[in-house]
Amino acid sequence: MLLLEQIKNIVGPKGWTADPAELEAHVTEWRGVVHGSTPLLVSPGSTREISLVVRACADAGVAIVPQGGNTGMCAGAVPDESGTQIVLSLARMNKIRNVDAANFSMEVEAGCILQNVQNAAAEVNRYFALSLGAEGSCQIGGNLSTNAGGINVVRYGTARAQVLGLEAVLADGTVVSSLRSLRKDTAGYDLKQLFIGSEGTLGIITAAVLKLYPAPGTISTALVAIETSGHAVRLLAHLRGELADAIEAFELVSDFVFGMVTGHIPELSVPFEHPYPWYVLLDVAVGGSSDRLDIALSKAADAGLVLDAVIAKNSAEAARLWRMRHSIAEAERSVGNALKHDVSLPISRLEEFLVRGDILLGELSPEAKLIAFGHVGDGNLHYNVALPDGSKNGEAVSSAIYDLVDELGGSFSAEHGVGRTKRHYLSKYRGDGEIELMRILKKALDPNNILNPGKVI
Ligand code: FAD
Ligand code: MLT
Ligand code: ZN
Question: What is the pLDDT of residues 323-343, one digit of tens each?
Fold first, then answer.
């Protein structure tokens, strides 16, 4: 096929593969639930090469699926089954272009692994605030395209809030660069925000200028046992009162979920003598000693908000607690593919959601196992449900949960995006005006629907 030869010539021998064995990992989403097919994986080495590849595909009317680390939760980065869509990997676009410590910013290519971005900032005593379980393999371009969240949103906001400037390639190959490192810039529309969170359907992100923070200093980590999810919400308010904005992470995990993790990784354990119904794992930046955290937690215990608590004595203990949290997705996969509901709610309605959710599940699928955990500091709950083998109830359970979320003023997708697997919910839970405007934007930027078709809208 002429197009494939054209693409191979643009990127050179290091920039493509059609070997079925190598393609396999790129056409399968990480949980193995969705498989697609492609004639070619292309990995351009520069923005110019991406622009030329996209132009060639546009001329031939062939679709492109941008792919970062392929750790996404909604199968947005894998091609469909037609065998015609080209997968465009950003993996070779992995340079840290510069770190400007004085400006608290850095310019990176889209294919940089998130952990490498964090490390490059730390080398100059700066802090890049995005952190998630997949940070060793996801790419900053994927993080921006999904507007990823993770554990630090409570203090620093989502991926969207970490961006000062962006470069993207449009569906006709045009390069749009707003790679400025400014905190204030009101000259016209804020174009970078169009590409952030649009999951590769409006353009391919090739580089970004990221916002950095001062290093937060010593972090104190605690695992706190609580009675109900409502106590987590009240504990958050209490700690905010005591410690202001020092809370870096505030994660809720049910006892069932930690049991799943320790079952999967036997060297891990919950550091209490007996189990409690719920736990909060939290990080606070309160200087060199954990005394302020200790005092704040004692006051919370006096107020009846805390059943028990351990404060990590050193970084190894803290890392062990966080390993339990970051192993949840992997442990969940090992027990089968649960239905994933990545919902957000006003924090004040979380408890009501969990109570009513229990009743719903009891009615619809009494044998279902609830895998509830999440970034409760920012109102995001992973309300995943493992149904009994062979159950045909999946769609009914998901719809009932999302209807409840919608009734309580929440969103059916807090941080994982829409991708392919949640597309049908978008038109259900977004208003007609919102959907129409999304369609207008998609048509204006990608009139021939070649950028990640079949995803999001
Ligand atoms: P991919 O999966 O490759 O792609 C995701 C989407 O972005 C696709 O639609 C793809 O087409 C598009 N895309 C990728 N790169 C580009 C680009 N350069 N330009 C345009 N479009 C592009 N997510 C969270 O938000 N919070 C979490 O806490 C979290 N924890 C996780 C824990 C684990 C163990 C795992 C496996 C995943 C987790 N995720 C989490 C989901 C996932 O890591 C994030 O969605 C991440 O941002 C995806 O990055 P990626 O590079 O893997 O993107
Ligand atoms: C996480 O926070 O671990 C992931 O975003 C959630 C998931 O695996 O559902
Ligand atoms: Zn998450």
Answer: 999 999 999 988 888 999 999
